TrEMBL record:
Gene Ontology molecular function, alphabetical: adenosylhomocysteine nucleosidase activity; methylthioadenosine nucleosidase activity
GO biological process: L-methionine salvage from S-adenosylmethionine; nucleoside metabolic process
Protein name: Nucleoside phosphorylase domain-containing protein
Domain annotation Nucleoside phosphorylase: ranges: 11-213
One cellular component term from this protein's GO annotations in UniProt: cytosol
Coiled coil region boundaries: none
InterPro entries, alphabetized: Nucleoside_phosphorylase_d, Nucleoside_phosphorylase_sf
Biological source species: Kosmotoga pacifica
Domain of life: Bacteria
Length: 221
């Protein structure tokens, strides 16, 4: 079983629309669809804003479905200004940028990603960029703040959920992978850019995952 999550339902709609649906239901107020894509059993859900909701929903889904892999697909804002809207980021390291624990700084970094899933994405989408993703419970829409965070963290992009999902998977000893699409540049135009680019690119990570699931078995558990 592969658990695939997103922040907003449209981000995973291509998976839902193209799976052989076995079951639909609701868990803690979130709709899920369970079905078959290729030779993979998948459960798809969405609906969390911020790290607390991301962690809570992920844990509830793990408890209910016992997935062999968790995959997060959704949007992010760029910290690295060489990126552009539509770029795909495969997370290799995760950290909460607003969690300050000086004596335990290294322990807040999570690097235990599912490398085989990332390799599959690279084979299907070689333009995917690998790197660090940081998460926090506030929106960044200021170029100076963006540049400061990039200097401090060396992360490619920023969101409100990846580090939380990664931490829950780590605590449950479940392989995971995170694929983000850049929707804004974390600057003063972020709100406008997000609205425009969401329509253009929001489904891109799910479409890549769907292409892989049709041809490969990802959950070998």
């Amino acid at each position: 079983m592969i658990l695939i999550e997103s922040v907003f339902m449209p981000e995973v709609q291509p998976l839902i629309d193209n799976m052989l649906t076995l079951e639909t239901g609701e868990l803690v107020g979130r709709i899920y669809s369970r079905g078959i894509i290729g030779q993979n059993e998948v459960t798809v859900t969405s609906g969390f804003i911020g790290k607390v909701e991301a962690a809570a929903i992920t844990q509830k889904m793990i408890d209910r479905f016992s997935p062999g892999i968790v995959v997060l697909v959704s949007g992010a804002g760029a910290l690295d200004t060489s990126l552009k809207p539509g770029d795909i980021i495969a997370g290799t390291e995760f950290q909460e940028y607003d969690l300050i624990v000086p004596a335990r700084s290294n322990s807040t970094r999570i690097t235990s990603v599912d490398s085989s899933t990332i390799e599959h994405v690279q084979s299907f989408f070689p333009d995917a960029k690998l790197g660090k993703i940081v998460s926090g419970d506030r929106l960044v829409a200021d170029a100076k703040e963006r540049d400061r965070l990039y200097k401090e963290t060396a992360a490619l992009c920023l969101d409100m959920d990846s580090a939380a999902v990664a931490r829950v998977c780590q605590l449950n000893s479940i392989p995971f992978a995170v694929f983000k699409v850049i929707l804004d540049m974390c600057d003063e135009y972020s709100e406008r850019d997000f609205s425009e680019n969401f329509k253009l690119y929001a489904t891109k990570p799910a479409e890549i995952i769907f292409s892989i699931l049709k041809r490969h078995i990802l959950d070998v558990k």
